[in-house]
Amino acid sequence: xxxxxxxxxxxxxxxxxxxxxLRKRQGALDEWWRYYRGRPPLPALPKNAEQxxxxxxxxxxxxxxxxxxxxxxxxxxxxxxxGPGGEPDDMASRWxxxxxLDSRQKLVWRTAMSQSTGYMLVGPHPTRTEENGRPSxxxxxxxPSECIVEYDAETGEPLVGLKAWHDDIDGYGHARxxxxxxxxxxxxxxxxxxxxxxGPESWEYxxxxxxxxxxxxxxxxxxEFARMPDLGEDPEPEFAxxxxxxxxxxxxxxxxxxASRFSGFRQKWIKGHKFAKRVDPATGLTxxxxxxxxxxxxxxxxxxxxxxxxxxxxxxxTGFLKEHASDVRDMLTxxxxxxxxxxxxxxxxxxxxxxxxxxxxxxxxxEHVASFGxxxxxxxxxxxxxxxxxxxxxxxxxxxANPAHVxxxxxxxxxxxxxxxxxxxxxxxxxxxxxxxxxxxxxxxAASQALLAASLLPAPAAPTxxxxxxxxxxxxx
Length: 477
Description:
Strand 12 and strand 13 form a beta hairpin. The strands form 5 sheets. Strands 4, 5, 6, 7, 8 and 9 form a 6-stranded antiparallel sheet that branches. A 3-stranded antiparallel sheet has the order 3-2-10. The chain is flat. The protein is 38% helix and 17% strand. The protein is built from 12 helices and 15 strands. The longest helix is centred in the C-terminal third of the chain and has 29 residues. The mean pLDDT is 84.
């Protein structure tokens, strides 16, 4: 049985503590994931109508939460890492490309936007090695249902991390408690069905020594990317502030669908006709015979002197549509998502209008950039430590693409004006969103073209007797 004595330096205690925290937040993660995937709870109707509208309930769900989350993910694109002075770094670029962070970073951003947090874990690569013989850094993307971090209450620095997962091959649950200098592996005593138990008798330590497995990274290898948490609060997904409106949108669509369906066949009425009646021999009840059956070829006729036929007016759906448009705009506005994504009445809008509608969204994405950039800097510093590189990457800088939508003409105009006031070409390339590798290529290409152009200039004229004075004196005309 594991030792439950409280203490950050007790890996048994931290395994159970962080594991129970994982289990506690699993319900919220599942709920947020259902909203992100467009499968929120079915909108409710009166009990006497539930069965009749069951199909409508499923069809009425419209996934706007996924749009809100992905609107930010699409603007988050880290281009690479440079050195402290802003110069491209070959080693950081190689680690970045080897771990495919150009594309895989989106997995973490999307998870953070949809489930409040994402993680990157840095460790030794099983097959790839560096020139010095050390294993190359392996950077993996991790899900919040399997990872969690404990922070220092005073400094806010990460202290202990947990990576826990179920192995579908051997059927056991596995976990690893992570510190800044060692880690402790665990395994469940029995095979599990996928849901990990968190009792002290459910796990056993499987490390070779009581002191765990040492590493020399100098930092916690598990890096958390939390989506803009408020002070003292747990992070929430990008759409957490509009979940009630999402439910309201679905309910409004359900009501509109119901009204549309039942007003599709206009209700008929007949006045002044005398219907024949008969007694049902099976039930003994009086049944009214219905001679008027709707049909394209039917002709209705009545012998009554004052018989009138008519039909009720169709339900006006305009109110439903206006309510839906208002709710959608509320969702986009409150979540600071560009409202032109719901372009119901925007026609031929200009680039300036888009820029104005983008202000709050770009500001929000820049907050994400500032937060996630710190995490990426830590990841690169961990990668350098794993590779055994002596250089200090704590001052490394993550370069991001501009989150604002800017046309190519505007970019070219801005670059031309910066060049005219003396900005270096490499700085201009950075400002317009080029990656570190592209900046190096651009500056190298510009230098080679300038050298080639200089070599093609005509050579200066050689001095002659007519234009060179004797003994340095003036030349007589």
